Amino acid sequence: MTATRTELGDLAEEQQEFAALLRSLADADWRRPSAAAGWTVADQVAHLADTEEVAADTLTGGERAFAVAVPRHRTAEEFTAAGCRRGDGLDPARLTAWWEESAARTRRLLAARDPGDRVAWGLGMTARTFATARQMEHWAHGLDIRDALGRPVDEPARLLRIAALGHSTLRYALARERVPWPRGRSLRLELTARDGTRHTVGPADATDVLHGPLLAWCRTATRRSRADPAAWRADGELADLALRYARAYL
Prior knowledge:
Layout: H1 5-23, H2 41-60, H3 66-69, H4 76-85, H5 92-111, E1 118-119, E2 125-126, H6 127-149, H7 159-168, H8 170-176, E3 187-192, E4 198-201, E5 208-213, H9 214-221, E6 233-235, H10 237-245
Parallel strand pairs: 3-5
Antiparallel strand pairs: 1-2, 3-4, 5-6
Helix pairs in contact: 1-5, 1-6, 2-4, 2-5, 2-6, 7-9
């Protein structure tokens, strides 16, 4: 395997945990609303299965590569909705099998890529970052299911990759909202896990610092439920903007 082992390992672990979550669901759970407005649990799985197919075709230059598939729709939202609708009429077993097969294909393809290879997903990213982006997608959509069903959310070590992705995509997130990056500012995250362990993301000499819970930052970066404002301490303008606009996905 020439692609970086750690990112692929974390992606595989995230998907194994997602598979275990799906196996734990009752048939009725698949029809329940998820924590994402307008999406059922089945929609969450269909979206991941569909985008894993697009991911694989992006890596191979296939007919459903990102740069080909998305422009076929008027908006990115329409593209996403169409993927969800591909799961309509599939029972849980068939929906799970579709996702498992497409996810396994993407992992195999990533394993054959050099970590620095460019992947034409959105604005483009390295194969290493793409593996983490797929991990983030599975974590976030798994979170939508867990939150809806009242399931606990763990803090495995691999969660730090999603935290770092939320930090590295901040410039994109601000540009998407047409918010200028504050001149001369940089950001460090000081994040605390439930067990009290502290983690740092970003330069030691950053001008701005955001202090808060690790899990809450990952929720913020994936635009899931936000933490109580009292949980944060934002030192500097860029830290405030990160809380408002962080977005780790396209």
